[in-house]
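fyi for ur records
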Amino acid sequence: MLLFACKRFVSLALTLVAASIVIFAVTNIVPGDPARVMLGLDASPQAVAALHRELGLDQPILMRYASWVGGLLSGNFGVSYTYKVPVSQLIGQRIWISLPLALYALSLSILVAFPAGVLSASRRNSARDVSIMGLTQLGIALPNFWFAMLLVLLFSITLHWFSAGGFPGWQAGFFPCMKALTLPAIALALPQASILARVLRSSLLDMLGEDFVRTARAKGLTRSQALRRHALRNALIPVLTIVGLQFSFLLAGAIIIENVFYLPGLGQLVFKAIAQRDLVVVQSVVVLLVLAVVLVTFLTDLAYAAADPRLRTRRR
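which gave:
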């Protein structure tokens, strides 16, 4: 297990290094002068040159990359030119909205997907199975931002159960904040629950054809009992990978939903930073999101190896 974990850690560390190179290169080859975009077209050459020195844009690109990586490793993400505050402070304020939103959406996805997948697999080709699979197909095909607007139209404008957007801040209390995150979490969880339910159903159906399940059935267990007691645990192995990938997507891919509901999270921060060409914020936040994805992938691999001993065995 330790050898497997070390191999995966080295592989993911190299992935993070490669991602940092790609992020730095992409943000620095975008056409246009970032300093002139920040200051406006009417800025004087002296002001543009001063901003170049402040941002380090007058240095060689390799020196800029080394300085940027060194700052990341020491916890110094730089100072946002737009907000005039350290980027670490901006991230610290925004992550406590994006992270609970991702966990909330993932919890809703699991709570919906697991019963749906088990019910669908227990009655294959029945009316229940066809209905659940049809709904999951609709959930995958439906754009989440459009579904989010439908939720606002129904629950905010028509029924007045939830606010249409905004975030009261955690100082307002736990339940008001979770209420503000409910509609965005539902909008994010819909396609993820649909995917997870279909994967779980397919995995369960594969397990039901295995010898150990047939042996359990021969001993007198019903199909539902054999599914819950024997097939479900083995079917969860590929589902773990999907859950890990979904959390990474929910944390890093909620930009549109956060803008629909006016949530001041990391997604909205990146969106505004891109529009304002605040390269310091863009680079730091994107690297942080990549780091989160890498860490979640690493933990998912460990969970996968713990559930499937075959991954821990050394083969020639």
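Residues 57 and 64 are 8 Å apart (CA to CA). thats all i got for now
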